[in-house]
Amino acid sequence: MTTADEQKKKRTQRIRELPFNRMIPNIVTLLALSAGLTSIRFALLDQWEHAVLSLVVAAILDTIDGRVARLLKGASKFGAELDSLSDFVCFGVAPALILYLWAMQDAGRPGWILVMLFTMCCGLRLARFNVATDDDDAPAWKAHFFSGVPAPAGAGLVLIPMIISFQVDAEILRNPWIVSGFLFTVGALLVSSVPTYSFKKLKISRNWIMPTMLIVAGIAAFSVTVPWLTLSVVMALYLSSFFFSIRAQYRFKLADKAKDRISD
User: Fold this and answer.
1) Do 126 and 151 touch, CB atoms closer than 8 A?
2) Between these two residues, 17 and 167, which has the higher pLDDT value?
3) Residues 29, 126, 96, CA angle at the centre, nearest 5°?
């Protein structure tokens, strides 16, 4: 048997036999996609709280699927494409449709245009992320930032009026003008170059391990007892982090310029 035949046989065997651990990340992604699609079903039934909770589940699954892939060494190009498709449906299509059914139907054609605009901005943000290549000459600090708001965070931010309405009986939150403002503003943040924190490479020092665990436990406890208040606080803290992320990136850039002047 020639070398070419042996290589072909090995490729065929790899296709026929795939370790189950390499399938787990894709299974998690499919579960996230299922949760996103289910949120649309709940919205069609006017079960708004269940719709938002389904998106929360989708966001949690989306957060862990990449980490599971790296842990199990199951990352693949197929998985990356599937993850991007799932993100577009869960965080681009689903929240836009939910808000349209909840408040924007009375806005007529302009309301539908804004709904489509938000979805397109999410698609553009994901496409930009997919085609972005790692720059070997880029400073290490750039790995700590996203360019623009990530898709899951964008879905959470655009649903803030609905989340608040679960706690406060104020019909004004359902006003198409208010929802339109969120759709336009968050859509712009998705495609913007505003630096936002990326926690993918966040490392916790030994002294902060226990406090971090206590904070996570506290968030979990509040999420069970007062889920909407907890989600509102998390969204507010995330919005406030923009000030610190923009300031931090600016300082990094100033430090790089100072180093360049010294080297020159």
Assistant:
1) yes
2) 167
3) 80
